[in-house]
Specification:
Layout: E1 3-6, E2 9-12, H1 16-43, H2 48-105
Antiparallel strand pairs: 1-2
Helix pairs in contact: 1-2
């Protein structure tokens, strides 16, 4: 999870989970398409079973895409939370300094 900050650009290296998710998505896409194509060749027409298989395959692809999106959002939120924590620490220091200034003026 290495983050590199450049001018207005944040790049990060993919995690092992993201690489695994990509490979699983690629495998599901290829194997699913092959299985559906083979079933269509065997049946010779668009049967109800084949239609159900197609829709289930598409649902599985959508779930894989959603899993990738959720993982990306989680990583982005981690960056935002770290930035907010740094901001809160800075605000605490500022309030401490302001309180000290007010006490000195009295």
């Amino acid at each position: 999870m290495g983050f590199k900050y450049e001018k207005e650009k944040v790049t990060r290296t993919p995690t092992i989970f993201e690489v695994g998710l990509f490979l699983a998505g690629l495998a599901v896409t290829i194997v699913g398409f092959y299985a559906i194509h083979k079933q269509y060749i065997l049946d010779g027409y668009l049967s109800w079973g084949l239609l159900q298989g197609i829709f289930l395959w598409l649902i599985l692809l959508v779930l894989l895409i959603l899993a990738a999106i959720v993982e990306n959002v989680k990583e982005e939120l981690a960056v935002i939370i770290k930035e907010l924590l740094a901001e809160i620490k800075l605000m605490r220091n500022e309030t401490v300094l302001l309180k000290e200034c007010i006490k000195r003026k009295r």
